[in-house]
Predict the 3D structure of the following.
Amino acid sequence: MRALVTGATGYVGSRLCGYLVERGWAVDAVVRPGADIDRAGGLPGVTRHEMRDAGGDLDTIITAVRPDVVMHLAAAMPDGEEADATDRLVDANIRLPAHLADALARHPRVGLLHAATWWEWDTNGHFAPANRYAATKAAGRVILETAARRAPFAMASLVLHDVYGPGD
């Protein structure tokens, strides 16, 4: 099996990459220019593909890699005031999934596992994003789900209830 992982330099993504490599998967990772590979443990056994322009690069990478599944973990959270992080939240949580949806529409045999956040819903399970991060994550999820119905490509969303990492 071959996986293409977004968010591979993050806490969860780097551990997922290691887990897959240990189990014999071929693992490729989409990384941003200047991504902190060392913080991710160097991503041993993982082939890295730098993405400068999500609009064109994702399709090129998927065409070259020919993954069985894309595991989309990339996201941005505010590290201060949400208003100060608007562009970063929109770029990572809405624009990137939209470009990924476009690329996967051209590669319908590739499955998608998308990481959602429980912050999109209230304690009764009703859609009620808790903050701007959750709202942008929800928008990205809806874009991907819409594309999966239309393309179609297989998609599942994994709702992460909390992510623990350094500093938590």
Summary: Strands lie at 2-6, 26-31, 46-50, 69-72, 111-117, 155-160. The mean pLDDT is 91. The CA atoms of residues 32 and 106 lie 22 Å apart.
